[in-house]
TrEMBL record:
<dbReference type="InterPro" id="IPR011051">
    <property type="entry name" value="RmlC_Cupin_sf"/>
</dbReference>
<dbReference type="InterPro" id="IPR014710">
    <property type="entry name" value="RmlC-like_jellyroll"/>
</dbReference>
<feature type="domain" description="Cupin type-2">
    <location>
        <begin position="40"/>
        <end position="107"/>
    </location>
</feature>
<dbReference type="InterPro" id="IPR013096">
    <property type="entry name" value="Cupin_2"/>
</dbReference>
<protein>
    <recommendedName>
        <fullName>Cupin type-2 domain-containing protein</fullName>
    </recommendedName>
</protein>
<dbReference type="Pfam" id="PF07883">
    <property type="entry name" value="Cupin_2"/>
</dbReference>
């Protein structure tokens, strides 16, 4: 559903939960995507998981964490820090915090149609 007016989803509008591992999550679910704020405590590794249809992208806001994923028969690891973005696709993945501080990151969950939209993102802004 397209909207021509801003839709504000305040922090209090999100569904909040604390997972058994201590990760705090605030979910904002929309018709075509989901955005959630995560706070991953030090010493926590999220359970390995993947999605068959949903694609995830992670944007680290503060702190440093390890992203682990499996692809091509091997396990891979990259450290992510503030400002880093990782597009996870549908690969099995987890993140781990061994930084000594809480890591804050935003997850974008999308169900994509496979049609490239870069030109729309580059050119759709109209100045008033």
């Amino acid at each position: 559903m397209r909207t021509t007016t801003p839709l504000i989803s305040r922090a209090a509008d999100g569904k909040e939960t604390v997972k058994p591992d201590g990760t705090a999550v605030r979910y904002h679910l929309f018709d075509e995507y989901e955005i959630h704020w995560n706070e991953l405590p030090d010493g926590v590794t999220q359970q390995w998981h993947h999605h068959d249809t949903i694609e995830e992208a992670v944007h680290v806001v503060s702190g440093r964490m390890l992203l682990h994923w499996r692809a091509d028969g091997a396990q891979h690891t990259e450290e992510l820090g503030p400002g880093d973005v990782a597009r996870l696709g549908t690969a099995p993945h987890t993140w781990e915090n061994k930084s000594g501080e809480v890591v804050r990151f935003i997850v974008f969950k999308l169900v994509l149609d496979g049609v490239g939209k870069r030109e729309i993102f580059r050119n759709d802004k109209q100045l008033d």
